[in-house]
Amino acid sequence: MNIIRHVVTMEVKSRGIECELGIITRADGSAQVKQGNTIVTCGVYGPVEAKSAREKVDKAVVEVIVKSETGLPGPYEKELELLMSSCCETMILTHLHPHTAISVSIQIQSDNGSVIVCMVHALCCSLLDACLPLKTTFSAIKCAFLSDGSMLTDPTTQQEETATSQLTYIIDRKGKLVASHATGSFDTEEYIKGLSVASSTAVHRTDFYRETISRKMSRIKQ
Length: 222
What we know:
The protein is about 30% helix and about 30% strand. By secondary structure, the chain is an alpha+beta fold. It has one domain: GHMP Kinase, N-terminal domain (Ribosomal Protein S5, domain 2, 2-Layer Sandwich), CATH 3.30.230. The strands form 2 sheets. A 5-stranded mixed β-sheet has the order 1-2-3-5-4. The protein has a 4-stranded antiparallel β-sheet with strand order 7-6-8-9, with helices on both faces. Helix 1 (about 75-90) links the parallel strand 4 and strand 5 (about 100-110). The longest helix has 20 residues, at about 200-220. It is globular, with a radius of gyration of 18 Å.
């Protein structure tokens, strides 16, 4: 069976991304990422010795906690925890740290759209800041489809409310799909269109991570 991927060429519009590393002093790695008015802070703790009840002999155990703006977790936060946990399990080389535990805490400080994208960028920056071994870097982009068939990238909350479907793609440095999150009604053509756009942004996110780490290293050398 041959799968045909449609290559989509379009201008990918995105709000500016800002990142500050080491924002949580007690964490082994941390980052605060701002994308427009959406702000997420992430802290990574470990690897540390795991409790016997949770210990795995062949790899590290990864636990992710997502906190909302109000601080009260609900079904949506639990859904996000599963998504971020899957991402961590896929991208962290957990087999290099058997018998240990890695904890990730993600705090949503302000949600003005595309919050999962902001979470993914904060997570990757925090893992890099903690010097944890990764298969590669990863990033995300959100596509919102409107009733007229047009597509928006990096939608705000107001734009999300008018969308018929919302697709968030988590991709690695080479543009390969790691995970995705979807809401609303969409067809295969729309999914593939969004994935093609997401894959095309991978190289730009790699440059963003490189520049972020370089800025921190420059400050350390000073």
